[in-house]
Design goal:
There is one protein chain. The chain is an alpha/beta fold and about 400 residues long. The protein is built from 13 helices and nine strands. The protein has helices at about 45-50, 75-100, 150-155, 165-170, 205-215, 220-225, 235-245, 260-265, 280-295, 330-345, 350-355, 360-365, 375-385; strands spanning about 10, 40-45, 145-150, 175-180, 250-255, 300-305, 310, 315-320, 345-350. Strands 4-3-5-6-9 form a five-stranded parallel beta sheet, sandwiched between helices. Helix 4 packs across helix 13 (about 375-385) and helix 5 packs parallel to helix 9. The longest helix has 25 residues, at about 75-100. It is globular, with a radius of gyration of 45 Å.
C-alpha cells in the first residue's frame, strides 16, 4: 500500500471547557467542530524540523571541559603523568646527592642511640666461593698443597708462631708455601721491567704469574743482580720456590695484597686497557688470564685488602671511604677485585667488610695498615673458612 509523504498540520486547538453531560440530552451534547472548520496549513518535514528544531551552531565535541555546565573539572591525564615523573626524578636525584655527600660518614640513625647494637650486623659481606668445575678437577698427590702470594698480611713476622701463615698451619693439615714478599705491590711501577729503575717491581703479581706459567726467570736474574747483597730473604725464597714448584701438584693458590697500592696512589684501572699491569685491577686481570689458562685445575682464591686508614700530612687518620686515591676509595679498589674474580670464575674472600672493616679496625690494627695479633687470628680463620668451604 502506497503511503503519502508525511505532512504535519498546524491546527488551532480550542480551549476545552469541562462539560457536565448530565445537563444535556444526547441530542444537545456539544460536538467538536469538523476538521474543516479551520483551514489547515501543510508543512513538509524539512520545514517542520527547521521551524520547531533549529540546528545548533556548534557541535558538542567543540566544547571544552570547562564550558560544559554539568561536567566536573579535572586535570588532563598527561599533566598528571608529567608531575609524577618530575617528583620521582627529584626524589632520586636528592637521594644520590645525599648518599655522595655523606659517603663514609656516620649519619643520624633512626634506632635508639642507647640500644646495644653491633654495627657489624648491618655490614653486607661479599664473599663468593667458586669451586673448580668437576670436569677440570684432578687428583694431585693426595695432599692439599697451597701457595700464597701477596705482601704484608702473609709476610709480616712470617717466622713467628702468631703470624697469619703459622696460624693457618695450626688450623689445617695443608702443605703451605708462603711466597709473599714484604713491600711488594699488586700494580707494577713500570710498563716493562727495568731492573735499574725498580728491581723490586719483579715481585708484583703479574711478573710472578709469568714466572709460574712461562718460567720467565730472566727478569729475576736481572733484579737480583741490581740489588746485589740487598736481596730480601723472602724475595729469594719466593723466586726459588715458584721456579721449582710443579703447579700441576698445587691445589690452591691464594692472593692477597694489602692497601699499599691505594695508599701510594697507584692507579685503579685504565679504561683504554683493562689488563694494564700498572693498574691495581688491570694487573690482577692480566695475571688471572695467565694462571687460569695454564692451570685450569687450580682453585684460586682472591682476597681483598683489609680495611686501612689514609694518613694525611698532619699524621691524622682519615677514613679510606672519604679519601679518594686517584679518584677512588679503598672499598672501590676492593670492589674491582670482586668483579674480576667473578669474571674469571675464581673465589673471592671479602676482607674489607668481612674481616677488618671500618667499625672494628681499632680492635685489629696496630697502625693505619698492619694487623695486630687479634687481626691475624681473624684473617687466618677467614682464610681457612674459604679454603675448606667445599670440604
Amino acid at each position: 500500500m502506497n503511503q503519502k509523504p508525511s505532512t504535519h498540520k498546524k491546527t488551532n486547538i480550542p480551549n476545552i471547557d469541562i462539560i457536565d453531560l448530565d445537563q444535556f440530552s444526547p441530542e444537545e451534547i456539544p460536538c467538536a467542530e469538523p476538521e474543516d472548520a479551520y483551514p489547515e496549513e501543510e508543512y513538509s518535514t524539512a520545514e517542520y524540523q527547521e521551524e520547531e528544531y533549529p540546528e545548533e551552531e556548534y557541535q558538542e565535541d567543540d566544547m571544552s571541559e570547562n564550558d560544559r555546565p554539568d561536567s566536573p573539572r579535572k586535570f588532563p591525564s598527561h599533566i598528571v603523568l608529567h608531575l609524577v615523573f618530575v617528583l620521582a626524578l627529584a626524589l632520586c636525584v636528592g637521594l644520590v646527592i645525599f648518599r655522595f655527600s655523606n659517603w663514609g660518614t656516620r649519619v643520624p640513625s633512626l634506632f635508639d642511640p642507647d640500644a646495644d647494637i653491633d654495627d657489624n650486623d648491618f655490614i653486607e659481606v661479599l664473599d663468593n666461593m667458586i669451586n673448580v668445575p668437576a670436569n677440570q678437577r684432578q687428583d694431585t698427590d693426595g695432599v692439599r698443597t697451597v701457595v700464597l702470594l701477596g705482601n704484608s698480611p702473609f709476610s709480616d713476622d712470617r717466622d713467628s708462631a702468631d703470624s697469619v701463615v703459622s696460624l693457618i698451619s695450626q688450623m689445617t693439615d695443608a702443605t703451605i708455601y708462603n711466597c709473599s714478599v714484604a713491600d711488594s705491590h699488586l700494580a707494577a711501577s713500570q710498563e716493562t721491567f727495568l731492573a735499574e729503575a725498580d728491581p723490586m717491581d719483579a715481585f708484583n703479581l703479574y711478573w710472578l704469574a709469568t714466572l709460574i706459567t712461562l718460567q720467565n726467570t730472566g727478569i729475576y736474574e736481572n733484579a737480583f743482580a741490581a740489588m746485589g747483597d740487598a736481596v730480601p730473604a723472602d724475595a729469594r725464597y719466593a723466586y726459588d720456590t715458584l721456579s721449582a714448584l710443579d703447579f700441576q701438584n698445587v691445589d690452591v693458590l691464594a692472593i692477597m695484597y694489602d692497601a699499599s697500592d691505594y695508599l701510594e696512589e697507584r692507579p685503579l684501572y685504565n679504561m683504554l686497557n683493562t689488563t694494564d699491569i700498572q693498574t691495581f685491577a688491570g694487573n690482577m686481570d692480566a695475571s688471572l688470564d695467565l694462571l687460569c689458562d695454564a692451570f685450569p685445575h687450580l682453585r684460586i682464591i682472591v682476597m681483598s685488602p683489609t680495611y686501612a686508614y689514609y694518613v694525611d700530612e698532619n699524621g691524622d687518620y682519615i677514613s679510606s671511604d672519604i679519601h679518594k686515591s686517584t679518584g677512588f676509595s679503598l672499598s672501590t679498589y676492593a670492589g674491582n677485585l670482586e668483579q674480576i674474580s667473578y669474571y674469571h670464575s675464581v673465589s673471592y674472600l671479602d676482607n674489607i667488610y668481612g674481616t677488618v672493616n671500618e667499625e672494628n679496625a681499632p680492635d685489629y690494627l696496630t697502625d693505619h695498615l698492619h694487623l695486630n695479633a687479634a687481626g691475624r687470628q681473624r684473617l687466618a680463620e677467614r682464610f681457612v673458612y674459604a679454603l675448606e668451604y667445599f670440604d
